[in-house]
Amino acid sequence: MRQQIIAFLLSVTILWSTIYLNNKILPQNNSAFVDYFRQHVFGDRIACASLWDRINFTELGFTGSPNFGKYAVAMYEHLNWKSSNIPPSPINCSACTNLLLKEVVRNNHQIPFNGTWLRYVINKTTDRYHFHPRFCSFSEKALTKRYIRRCLAKKNIRKIVTIGDSNSQRLMGAIVRILSTSLDRCNHVARESRNHKPNPKYYLRNVPFNLSDVSFHDYSCASCASRRYICPYSTTGKDPKRKRENHNLVLEQIANTRIIDDGRRIKVKLGQFLPTNITQEFLLRDYFRAEHYPDIILFQMPFLHEIYYGRVRSPGTTWKLREPLKKLRKLITKYVPSTTSVYWLPNQDICESDSRASFRNPLLRESIDVFSEEMESILGSPSNNIFPFFDLFELSRPIKSLHLVNDAPHMKEEWYDIIAKYILELHCNS
């Protein structure tokens, strides 16, 4: 430990001397630069730094540290609150929790997004990104097997569901990748065919029915399809004499391309499935109750589909989202049990390679603002199980290298891995 401290102090001294002599890095912000190094936490936890607004860090080279000796770090632009009357504040090192995000929404009347992006370049070959929120910290470098299994046991998590379009599908893919390395394995057990249409047999798999009893129609999404995974794993606890316990974690992506729609209608009573003309009522009231109700539901809001194909296709039409958002909010508060944690995820921005990005991104921003206004009362309330997440539209904008140039609505795989990790870590911290 003493040798590590000496090595760290020596590396800071050398780097500080370089800055002083060359006067190239942070010539007017040396105090914040010192704070950054002073508050770094090495080892298995990512740094929690004290950084102030309007400080433009350039690329920094780390030398001499046993953990960061071959890293380079770039500080991306700060994501500040839109409201100018909120003073800048240092990054807080306390763990991010869902109740803390509720408090931010309650105090600032908007979904949080301010903070700083870090880029770690490992051995000059591999980029890694990490986001420092302004008011809390995601500290785990990786969600280890021990961390995940302890969280699943503590929270009694048996089922995680994502609901949304192809971005939601990619998010579930990231969750599967993370949990496949932490659990024994994750097996793909069922999926719809990718033919633009929902498959009644997928949803009514344990109920006899005739095609005339239901009406399922187009997703308007070529890559959207519902699918299920089962991740078996075993635990023994701290006592080596304790009998090994076997568990199954169910992961499911539910394809959904509208806030409220009639794409999956049940015309007559089919076992526990009651008649309904609303897809979201079918899912929340009946489909999820047919088996173990999800412990976590991640709603990826399908604003991109509302803009591309739905209600919001021209400036000044985002008000059309208010009524379906109100209906969805009522369905969730009515049917989702208090034991289920619901998280809302806005869309990331559209890559500028899209010829209409300059037109569609403002609509997407307006849609998220309407969502924030309509959902503020429940997202900020400390007494319910409905939680906000970060404004992914604003978080994604500085990270141009993670956008897909030839697939503007989507991001590279690493983006979804980052967001999936933060969602799981947020829930486990709470």
The whole-angstrom Rg is 23 Å
- Main sheet summary: 7 strands, mixed
End-to-end gap: 31 Å
Structural class determined from secondary elements: alpha/beta
Low-pLDDT segments: 14-91
**Strand fraction:** 15-25%
Give, in order, the helices and strands. HHEEHEEHEHEHEEEEHEHHEHEHH
Mean pLDDT: 78
Helicity level: 25-40%
Oligomer: single chain
Shape verdict:
globular
In spatial order, strands of the major sheet run: 6-8-9-5-11-12-13
Given the structure, what is the number of helices? 12
Number of strands: 13
Task: Please outline what is shown here.
The chain has twelve helices and 13 strands. With 430 residues, it is an alpha/beta fold. Helix 9 packs parallel to helix 10.
How would you describe this protein?
This protein has 12 helices and 13 strands. It is of the alpha/beta class and 430 residues long. The protein has a 7-stranded mixed β-sheet. A 4-stranded antiparallel β-sheet has the order 1-2-3-4, with no helix packed on it. It has a two-stranded antiparallel sheet with strand order 7-10. Helix 10 (357-379) links the parallel strand 12 and strand 13 (386-388).
